[in-house]
Amino acid sequence: EETMEWLKKCAKIITQHGYPVAWISPIGVPAIQPYRQTKPAKVITVSQTVTLNDSSSDDLPLNKARQVSAFPPNYIHSLDSSHMLLTALEMDRRGLTFSAVHDSFWTHPCDVDEMNEVLRDVFVDLYERPILQDLKRGWELRYPDVTFPEPPEHGELDL
């Protein structure tokens, strides 16, 4: 809960400075939230009037509420996808078959025990990193005019 509140607070600070929330995932993938205010456009035809909402232009104002509310789950998704890709790379390094969709991971039945070991080892390796400190450092580079609060203390990973 403390981490989620910190993520929301930082997202709010970023949007108050007029920036969309952006970050680099633990595997180096850049992410920028696209949420902007919509610009309605009416299309009038003989039989009807249709209103289209366009939010694809970077010139439109930020949807600050959506930027803030969407950031914690989007950031967590980027951590989950990092875990999945790191798992896939380790399975490949070991010469094992691996497939995944979202948080469902598959391999041949004879390799399930080893995949479970890989999943846990990669998870521990990922979350032993100072990921919140790394996130803050990335923001400080990207948004040099913004001051961020310190992230919550790194907890104990007691498995």
Task: Describe the protein in words.
By secondary structure, this protein is α+β, with helices and mostly antiparallel strands. 46% of the residues lie in helices and 15% in strands. It is built from 4 helices and 6 strands; from the N terminus they run H-E-E-E-E-H-E-E-H-H. It has helices spanning 2-16, 64-93, 112-127, 131-142; strands at 22-24, 30-32, 39-44, 49-54, 99-101, 104-106. The protein has a two-stranded antiparallel ribbon with strand order 1-2. Strands 3-4 form a two-stranded antiparallel sheet. Helix 1 (2-16) crosses helix 2 and helix 2 (64-93) packs across helix 3 (112-127). The longest helix is centred in the middle third of the chain and has 30 residues, at 64-93. The model has no long low-confidence stretch (mean pLDDT 92).
Question: Tally of extended strands?
Answer: 6
Biggest β-sheet description: 2 strands, antiparallel
Mean of all residue-level pLDDT scores: 92
Overall geometric form: flat
- Provide the helix percentage: 40-55%
Low-confidence stretches: none
If strands are numbered along the chain, what order do they take across the biggest sheet?
1-2
Counting helices, strands and paired strands, the structural category is: alpha+beta
Distance between the termini: 19 Å
* Backbone CA Rg: 20 Å
Estimated share of beta-strand residues? 15-25%
Number of DSSP helical runs = 4
- The succession of helices and strands, N to C, reads HEEEEHEEHH
